[in-house]
Amino acid sequence: MRKNYRTRIAKTGLPPGSLVHVGERHTEEPLLSLMVYNEEGIAEKTLTGIGECRGLREQTDTVSWLHVAGLHDIGLMEQLGDFYHLHPLTIEDILYTDQRPKMEDFGNYIYIVLKDLSLPPEGGGELMPEQISIVFGPHFLISFQERQSPLMEPIRERIRTARGRIRKAGGDYLAYTIIDTIVDQYFILLEKLGENIESLEDQLVTRPERDTLHAIQDIKREMLYLRKSIWPLREAVNALQRSDSTLMETATDLYLKDVYDHTIQLIDTIETYRDILSGMLDIYLSSVSNRLNEVMKVLTIIATIFMPLTFLAGVYGMNFKYMPELEWRWGYFMVLGIMVTVALSMVHFFKRKKWL
Q: Most exposed residue of 17, 145, 179, 210, measured as fewest CB within 10 angstroms of its CB?
């Protein structure tokens, strides 16, 4: 979950708008895919350069969706900024992949930052965060992703099959669709984390181990990271919904309100899980303490039973010459009988007191 941004120091002292990629490099070369569509049809292709997008900004009868996977090519990002007239601060924020989710209105376009979180495919392990940046206008949208992943594929399939109103709407609705897809991913992630929490609860009830404590701490850190990603996302969605920008259609506001409600539900779930995890820590400490108390109880009872037996054995182990019992034929059996009687009496006493 934690990224090592060793290149962050490269930005120190630079003026605002300086383009420096801060993050991990996930692809050898950035991958550019373009999808142009309207209600009548759709066209898709993979691009080799920004020059192939010429003329798209002037088209008002279609929506062009340019998806960029891989952010380390500074030259490409500069070309994109020039072609779509993006502010240098926007390009700088896209390249800085440790951004807080937010929404910014630049007049001729709106910029949105999101966090996509997922678990490793093999299960377990730390959360894998990825920054998703969206720039959209009335008839275009550019999405930026750190790596090539199937995240956007369901949206492309909806466009191909013309499901819903996505082919009839503009860039604002496409932006909503991407936000909604990422929010849905959060629900899937929380469901998996909830299953892990239930499994840990079973371990706490049966036999808590040190690994159980480490697992609880790991999930607590993941919940904290989720909270840091979703709280500002709620603010960004709310700001987008209440924006008076001409880039936002009134019909899209209703869908954004639904996403806003989902973010509130996510936050409530996260807070619930955090409370459960805090309680699990208390249960773990209590379980460990109870186990220690049970062990000490057993050892104390054993030591208490053997104390009088040890005393008798010590007395008759002194071997003084004039101890009369040493010469008695039945002395050994008498002492053994006394020891057994004392031990059984103490066990009976402990059971009456319900100490056993």
A: 210
